[in-house]
Amino acid sequence: MSNIPEELVVAHFIVSDDVERSRRFYTEVLGGRTVISGEANDEVTYVALANSWIIINVGGPPTDDKPAVTLEPPPDPDRVSSFLNIRVADINAVYEQWRARGAEFLTPPADRGVELRCYLRDPDGHLIEVGQTTMIPA
Q1: How far from the centroid of its chain's Cα atoms is residue 36's Cα?
Q2: Spatial separation of the C-alpha atoms in residues 102 and 28, rounded to whole Å
Q3: From CA 18, how far away is CA 36, in angstroms rounded?
Q4: At 27, phi and psi to the nearest 5?
Q5: C-beta of residue 117 within 8 angstroms of C-beta of residue 109
Q6: Cys-Cys crosslink for 15: which of 4, 26, 59, 112, Cβ 3.0 to 4.6 Å?
Q7: Which residues contact 17 (CB under 8 A, 6 or more apart)?
Q8: Is the pLDDT of residue 1 over 50?
Q9: Using one digit for the tens of pLDDT, what is the confidence trace for 27-83?
């Protein structure tokens, strides 16, 4: 894939019931940039977000390279085993900007001592943490 500028890039893969709806969320709400977009709603889409990538695709049954794995959006968005973590310089500005664009946060940013943080979900229920580090490294 020639669009990837580094030898190694870590990307976050999400499964969506509606790839186009998720693409719009990650670009129009969070400010990412569509890099690759499938022609149909069920085709893989890549969104560049800051220094990372969000890969959006529909779910599906097991394949020969993942024989026991079924891909699906979270069946219960209140039970998670991983989430996207986004670090920002000014959480209050990001919170207001993304809310104005339609993001629905679970709570406003909260002070956790070493960081300010809040959470939102994407249209498929994937949890996203937004945080601002407040501790000064030694």
Answers
A1: 16
A2: 9
A3: 16
A4: -95, -55
A5: yes
A6: 59
A7: 58, 59, 73, 124
A8: no
A9: 999 999 999 987 766 679 999 999 999 999 999 999 999 999 999 999 999 999 999
- Give CA–CA dist 17/61, Å, rounded: 14
For strands 84-87 and 127-133, give the pairing. parallel
The percent of the chain in helix, strand and coil, each rounded to the nearest 5, is 15, 35, 50
**pLDDT digits 0-9 by tens, 108-122:** 999 998 999 999 999
Would you give the end-to-end CA distance of the chain in angstroms?
39
| Tokens linked to 117 | 């943080």
